[in-house]
Design a protein that fits this description.
Blueprint (H helix, E strand, L loop, with lengths): L15 H19 L15 E2 L2 E2 L1 H6 L4 H20 L9 H20 L19 H17 L9
Antiparallel strand pairs: 1-2
Helix pairs in contact: 1-4, 1-5, 3-4, 3-5
Length: 160
């Protein structure tokens, strides 16, 4: 299991945060494609949710087409949270629902960093003030979710 020294928790660790965010983005896109949502091609007018400077990963993550992906990730978040509590890495008072809520918050933070101007996951900020979700928790949850998605992709299909 990954560990981060106490005095460095919350820092943006490039490229690890970037790769975690990019991996999440690719899982979201794969889930959209699996569920028949078109991913933009240059000659098409229909595309995933759009923002001013590109696609809206937060809207795609929240979409009905990614419901099973979100559910799977939240199940893994609860399990990883309990495991990390047992090793003393997370707040011992958090419940499984608490771990799922923390995961949801961290996903939002990671997606925000991925799309933020100045690309803070690619380039250091001048003042070093950018904070990011804790890596051990997020990387472990996303890794387990990606493995499950790769091993059982049809389980992520929305019926209909």
């Amino acid at each position: 299991m990954l560990t981060v020294p106490e005095d460095r928790r919350g820092e943006v660790f490039r490229p690890t945060h970037f790769l975690a965010a990019h991996g999440l983005e690719l899982m979201i896109k794969a889930c959209l494609i699996l569920n028949k949502k078109k991913v933009k091609k240059e000659d098409e007018k229909e595309a995933p949710q759009k923002k001013k400077n590109g696609h809206d990963i937060a809207a795609d993550w929240a979409s009905e087409l990614c419901e099973k992906l979100r559910y799977c990730a939240r199940v893994h978040a609860a399990a990883v949270g309990v495991e990390m509590q047992q090793h003393g890495y997370l707040n011992p008072d958090l419940t499984e629902d608490g771990h799922r809520s923390v995961f949801d918050m961290h996903v939002s933070d990671l997606i925000a960093l991925l799309g933020e101007s100045g690309y803070p996951l690619r380039y250091p900020s001048a003042d070093g003030s950018k904070k990011a979700p804790p890596l051990p928790f997020m990387v472990t949850v996303l890794h387990r979710t990606a493995n499950e998605f790769l091993e059982h992709p049809m389980d992520f299909r929305i019926k209909g």
